[in-house]
Specification:
12 strands
Amino acid sequence: MNSSLFSFFTFLLLFFTASTSVDNTVYNEKNARRHLHFAYGSYCNVSSLQTWTCKWCSHIPGFEVKRVFNVNNLQCFVGYDKTNNEIIISFRGSHNIPNWIDNIDTISVKYRNIKGSEVHRGFYELWMLDLYPHVMPVIQSLINEKKGVNIALNGHSMGGAVAQFAALSIYDYTTHINNRIEIACYTFGSPRWGNKMMANYFNDRINNHWRIVNEEDIVPTVPFRRFGFYHTSTAVWYTDDKSLTFEECAATDGEDSKCHYIGYSAKDHLNYLNVYESCDK
């Protein structure tokens, strides 16, 4: 085989085996399931995440763990998904009594210096005070190491709310360094965390957010709207998790009546895409 023909076949091989970024602009259940595995994995113990041997890790081969953080009863991990060419940040949901205390802290505080903003103090402080000082430098380092690679965050329950605060911080950083990479969020059973002004503020900056809700999951119904809290977009409400039937609600309104329901089920909170949250093998 002559050298030019060899070079051509080498090019084709590299072209077809190279990692390609996933499309987060449309809802794709296969991709949502991948992020659910990440989000469920964040509940597993630190050593199984560091070695990527947790129950859910086997579903996502080719993931390189950068750091696992266990800080003040909180846990998350940061890494690079080689197969899908994405930086991944995953946040654990409520796992212990201190987490639930933060969940029920519905006192509102201002978000940075944004006029008219009000956010759930508990969730906001979990990110800004507890996790940000440790996690954000690692994210920044990975952004600069993986030039131009997009970012996807995920989290279940409380982890979904924290993931959205983290997404805003990453947006601010990438804007500051003039690196407008795509930032996507996949959240499962996320509670409300900000007022209407903040929901709009988030939606204007994070264009690709799939806020997935299972049947009558009680957690996305709190804190209540009567306390001034609103959801972010876009909601994907699974009306039947066995048949995986869902409604996709308006991207411009996180409180679209099409996805309104009466939340009463704790069981539905632990069973997303017909997969039960557990780290037991």
